[in-house]
Amino acid sequence: MFATDTRAVSPVIGVVLMVAITVLLAATAATFFVGFEDSLTGTGAPTIAVQGDFNVDSSGHELTLRFKSGDVADSENVKVYVTNADCRGAGIVSERFDVSQLGVSGSTVAAGTRAKVTAGTVCPPSASQLELSRTEVTVSWLRSGSTDGTVLYRWRGPAA
């Protein structure tokens, strides 16, 4: 008399729910992997585009670090690490510099800011020239009061 087929749409609903749960979990995981939570809390490093312009002239080598675009950062949080710079007549320099030591004035680093790695900014006064062929220069952002930070840009000399 009555049909005894007990199958309904529950298998279709089950599949739809499983797909929805999978998509939701994937979206949650991707949010954390990308670092979206840092941008919400304001604790993430700034995004700054930096370009290095390398020049050679009679006074030696010079590297101009141009901050091209991106976030504005406090100058005190932006550090420049110069490794294996040959200051002719004064030896090898491997040191961390504040951007203010490299010619940046002002309390912030933003698009248009320039820092110069020259004999006059990184070498002792007794140096006659700066040789950057085997040098590595790293621009980093450090959290205030911490040694924790993020590398924004890295430049290596032609023979490094």
What does this structure look like?
The protein has 160 residues and is of the alpha+beta class. It is built from three helices and ten strands; from the N terminus they run ααβββββββαβββ. The protein has helices at 10-34, 36-41, 119-122; strands at residues 48-57, 60-70, 73-74, 78-88, 91-98, 108-109, 114-117, 129-131, 136-142, 149-156. The strands form three sheets. Strands 4, 5, 8, 9 and 10 form a five-stranded antiparallel sheet that branches. A hairpin with a 6-residue loop joins strand 9 (136-142) and strand 10 (149-156). The longest helix is centred in the N-terminal third of the chain and has 25 residues, at 10-34.
Looking at this protein, list some descriptive labels.
160 residues; alpha+beta; five-stranded antiparallel β-sheet; three-stranded antiparallel β-sheet; 41% strand
